[in-house]
User: Which sequence fits this backbone?
């Protein structure tokens, strides 16, 4: 995948994980993670609890190792690389955050239009 697509993918993970963790957990801490993709380093600032950090770290590893040139959505991937138990946790988190982030975007559009 292109570097632009990679950046978009890890930013999406960051947004979803931080939304979920902020709403559901306490004891978040600031974590800086450096990701390397196509010989380029990407710095990622995270605000997560230990459990969510462990899960996003796993997800970012899967993203780095994705063998597809054109990355499919993980839920439609013909060769899933997530362990089933971890996939269920990530899917639950993504559903929760996706709904709330989508509603926030709609709310901001409505309030911004007034």
Assistant:
């Amino acid at each position: 995948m292109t570097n632009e697509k990679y950046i978009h993918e890890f930013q999406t993970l960051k947004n979803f994980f931080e939304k979920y963790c902020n709403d559901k957990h306490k004891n978040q801490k600031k974590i800086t993670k450096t990701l390397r993709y196509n010989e380029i380093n990407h710095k990622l600032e995270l605000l997560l609890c230990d459990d969510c950090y462990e899960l996003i770290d796993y997800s970012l590893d899967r993203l780095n190792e994705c063998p597809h040139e054109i990355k499919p959505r993980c839920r439609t991937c013909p060769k899933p690389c997530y362990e089933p138990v971890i996939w269920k946790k990530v899917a639950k988190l993504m559903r929760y955050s996706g709904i709330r982030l989508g509603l926030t975007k709609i709310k901001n559009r409505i309030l911004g239009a007034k």
Observations:
- Residues 3-113 form one domain.
